[in-house]
């Protein structure tokens, strides 16, 4: 009887275990991307406790090539994983993937097949590698490494957006906040701080490379900022930095800057501090600071055709918050502020002079053309000087068709799309007089003529000599 009771309690315990741990009622939603032509990265969000019906112990990802749907391959990862990379695939091929979640009781039903086409190496830019995000309460520190074909890229783009709601399964897609913020970063940048975020909120971050022809595949991260920690009433948090900072060049020396208040702030913001410096500047003494009580400012006295890095800081009554992430904007081009450097004149012959130079120190834009002006009379106004125009990519040119034995005066200027800049100091050069030069053809003709004349004389002499001997011969 005791043995029967033991078996009864064992079966009852097994029954309770079966009731407490069940098969998941849904499978996660897959998000797919490629970082090279031969791999696919599958990512998903964990199931909620209501859908998982117990602790998830493993995930299984099935995949197949669209051309061979009967050949299905599988890979399993642990229940704490949220991504897996399938490698050694064929480039420029379409693959289908699905996922199932498993507890100790078994696997859920498979998700629907999701299709993904692996890229072609010669046509696309691949996603940045080693994307890592360190989440703080109000910011995300994003770092990455260049993609495999990094020599083809011009820079990076980084976007972030807030995801509304909890992490939902595939049948219940989360509503996406349409407020997507995006910035453009230079090629050498490998990290960025996204600030002005709300605590304990789900965000999505994307980083991708671009060039003049196309934009590459993104590296994607999803996660939460840290929860708001309680502080003592005597303590206070500094104000958050502004958001949605927008910069627009207004002229060659000015930029309009606008921003919005942070969504969350525990103190009253009384004004803002703006930090502005040329991009890539390492000399702290050249950083400029401005103050504004409104949510915009007109930055003046800037250098033409220069890229500036700008950040904004919120200020409370007795405290200042951190600076926002930087935005970049370039002032518009202008006429060159300085002439071409080191103009040199070299006489080639009596009729031509070689002019050489170096680009100006302050071009204030892309040099489109160089203007070389010269004259034989320095008192002439500029419009009477002869103007030679040459492409902005050259640094030497010939002035031809000059007069021999003449002193010429030269000066030159550089020209952008806005106009020509100041002219260089005038330099003079003397073309040597024309030298007497024998015409080789005329000389050859003279020599030939003389030779023919001598030959004729010689023949005449020979004929006369023979005739004389014949006339006086003895009988």
TrEMBL record:
Alphabetized InterPro entries for the sequence: ECM_Regulatory_Proteins, FN3_dom, FN3_sf, Ig-like_fold
Keywords: Cell membrane, Disulfide bond, Immunoglobulin domain, Membrane, Repeat, Signal, Transmembrane, Transmembrane helix
GO cellular component, one term: plasma membrane
Transmembrane parts of this sequence: 442-465
Residues spanning the signal sequence: 1-17
Protein localization: Cell membrane
Domain Fibronectin type-III: 24-121, 127-229, 241-334, 339-434
Membrane topology value: Single-pass type I membrane protein
UniProt xrefs under Pfam families: fn3
Gene3D superfamilies: Immunoglobulins
Main localization category: membrane
Family: Belongs to the immunoglobulin superfamily. DCC family.
PANTHER family to which the protein is assigned, alphabetical: FIBRONECTIN TYPE-III DOMAIN-CONTAINING PROTEIN, TENASCIN
Protein name (Swiss-Prot/TrEMBL): Immunoglobulin superfamily DCC subclass member 4
Lineage, top ranks: Eukaryota, Metazoa, Chordata, Craniata, Vertebrata
